[in-house]
TrEMBL record:
PROSITE patterns registered for this protein in UniProt: PFL (PS51554)
InterPro entries in the record: Auton_GlycylRad_Cofactor (IPR050244), PFL_dom (IPR004184)
Organism for this UniProt entry: human gut metagenome
MF GO annotations: formate C-acetyltransferase activity
Name the record gives this protein: Formate acetyltransferase
Keywords assigned by UniProt, alphabetized: Transferase
Pfam family, one: PFL-like
GO annotations of cellular component type: cytosol
Start and end residues of each PFL domain: 1-147
Length: 147
């Protein structure tokens, strides 16, 4: 954890306190992702359902009047662009087996709780909208769960 805090400090961020807004929540999440893929040394590292987590911060900022809908989409677009830029140093054998240098980043969107309640949020749509705002790309994989 200390190394993660030091890495964030090099970029001018103090992650020793919880994120106070959506921009910080996304940045903190990205730092955690970078630390995780570094620790895994190139193994597949899915994100999970981060769009739902981030939605809490975005909706709070919109309700406070400090973020607009277009600003919220821009934050998600920026996050996806950062994910698309992550790379590992790979062996030639890996590159021969898997073309295109896949990172296996997967964002799970939607789904249902055990009680049958939907897990779709506004951010689920924002994440999918990056396919229009940024164009399609192999990463991150977007897995839509419907049941």
């Amino acid at each position: 954890m200390e190394m993660l805090k030091q890495m964030a400090q090099m970029y001018g961020y103090d992650i020793s306190s919880p994120a106070s807004n959506a921009r910080e929540a996304i940045q903190w999440l990205y730092f955690a992702y970078l630390a995780a893929i570094k620790e895994q040394n190139g193994a597949a590292m899915s994100l999970g359902r981060t769009s739902t987590f981030i939605d809490i911060y975005i909706e709070r900022d919109i309700n406070r009047g400090v973020l607009t809908e277009s600003g919220a989409q821009e934050l998600i677009d920026d996050f996806v662009m950062k994910l698309r830029m992550a790379r590992h140093l790979r062996t030639p054998e890996y590159n021969e087996l898997f073309g295109g240098d896949p990172m296996w980043i997967t964002e799970s969107i939607g789904g249902m709780t055990n009680e049958g309640k939907t897990l779709v949020t506004k951010n689920s749509y924002r994440m999918l909208n990056t396919l229009y705002t940024l164009g399609s790309a192999p990463e991150p994989n977007m897995t839509v769960l419907w049941s």
